């Protein structure tokens, strides 16, 4: 088991498959100038499948989520999913993606064994999409979402970040659209994980703001802590159900005490938290011929050092050096 000194057990593994992306969301990446990881530093497909195998068979991981950067840019994605689906015990597998290209690959991913997807979409307005992502790909994301639903990668969840002055008036429209299309919408508070270090707490759109805005049009009933478990999203039943809406309030209502995650970066580093300052190198061990038990031991040791919380509220908080796109969001 992966257990820390606070008794938390990690069962959910986030695997970043690349730090590259075909969008440039303003809260994530600068327009240009971000240094990509060097190709030889990236884990190969075989190395990724081996590490996931160790996590699943030796360390109690039951859920694997592929992310990035943009994971659909990884050429071997379908084959990685296929190989992970063959592991015993078979973990549940999901993908967090910006949806571009999903129209082409949704069916193959579902056939390979992917269970579901989260697609990020912050706005229903193409011009706002372009302002927020610096690319004209709004239609591709909508097509990708529909393809995921049609391929049975359900429930399809939609992740939205609200930014002041850009899309902060869109929460009710996004929810109405999600309910109509049978997507489960989750708002994510903007976190200090952008490569440009431009995040400011003042002015950020909080969970409180989002809920107040939604309540102007919808009746929201809290789903309650039992239903939440270790999920980061607090959920509300919309207009009596069955639709739900979630809010991931990492900044204003952190859920660190219930965290069940461990993270593997595309270059083979273990991180115990998005906000961790430390990483533990598994790639070096892999490439120097370490046995599975040795790698499992390094992973357990890393987990043992997991901090109690993100430290966001600590006056000495320092943003991690790696941006979200290189950690795996
Ligand atoms: N490219 C994929 C995507 O956009 O879904 C996967 C990686 S992305 C880093 C994962 C999620 O993190 C997305 O939903 C994105 O909106 C969110 N995200 C990125 N930067 C963020 C930030 N500074 N604060 C909150 N969420 C952020
Ligand atoms: Fe790319 Fe996802 Fe970051 Fe947007 S949030 S720039 S889609 S990695």
TrEMBL record:
Catalytic activity: GTP + AH2 + S-adenosyl-L-methionine = (8S)-3',8-cyclo-7,8-dihydroguanosine 5'-triphosphate + 5'-deoxyadenosine + L-methionine + A + H(+)
UniProt domain Radical SAM core: residue ranges: 5-223
Sequence segments annotated as region (Disordered): 310-329
Keyword Iron set for record: yes
Known cofactor(s): [4Fe-4S] cluster
UniProt keyword list: 4Fe-4S, GTP-binding, Iron, Iron-sulfur, Lyase, Metal-binding, Molybdenum cofactor biosynthesis, Nucleotide-binding, S-adenosyl-L-methionine
InterPro entries named in the record: Aldolase_TIM (IPR013785), Elp3/MiaA/NifB-like_rSAM (IPR006638), MoaA (IPR013483), MoaA-like (IPR040064), MoaA_NifB_PqqE_Fe-S-bd_CS (IPR000385), MoaA_twitch (IPR010505), MoCo_biosynth_MoaA/MoaC (IPR050105), rSAM (IPR007197)
Superkingdom: Bacteria
Enzyme Commission identifier(s): 4.1.99.22
NCBIfam families linked to this entry: moaA
Name this protein carries in UniProt: GTP 3',8-cyclase
